[in-house]
Amino acid sequence: MTQIPPPPPGPQQPGSYGDAKAQAKAAKAYAKAQRPWYKKKRWIGLIVLVVIIAISAASGGGSDDKGDKDAEDKTPTSSESPTETAKPDDKKSDEPKAGETKAEEPEPETKKFDVKTQAVAMVSEFSENELAADAKYKDKVIKVTGIISKIDTEIFDDKDYVLKLKGDAYDLLTVDCFDISNDELSKLAPGQKVSMIGDFKDGGDLGVELNHCSLA
What we know:
This protein is α/β, with parallel strands linked by helices.
């Protein structure tokens, strides 16, 4: 009887899907285990944690030292007084004491005069009778009141000023007051009524002149 040989084996079937997945996990775990230690996440996290702790400790220590130093600076030393003693007021009081009366301030002294008149009346006197007017005012100190016509420079000296009082309705005749200080003149203006005191100089058909004048 002739023996029939068995058929040749067929092609080997590939493994199942589960075996391939297990092999992939094993390969990944092996590669992960073979990485250097400084590339592993747990070591990196540990290093970061150590650095944070070191920085926090340094910052806290610096703040404590600064706080202690500020406290020492604010503490008064034995040579310093915590509060200042109020100084007594050295100023003397101007108020009069009991039973005393405060001295009155003297009034400004006014220049004395011999004759008192009005600018219009004075000009009229010289227009009507110059001889009688000269006799009345010669060598006298006159107090004359009138309305300022204008304040002008002198004819022959533009550095000096003269104040003119109206002597008539047309301002053709005036009482001219010389030698007035610039401080007094700066406070006056045309149209203002003033009283002037001065030494009689001359009078006539053109008006009257007074020297060394000042406000009364």
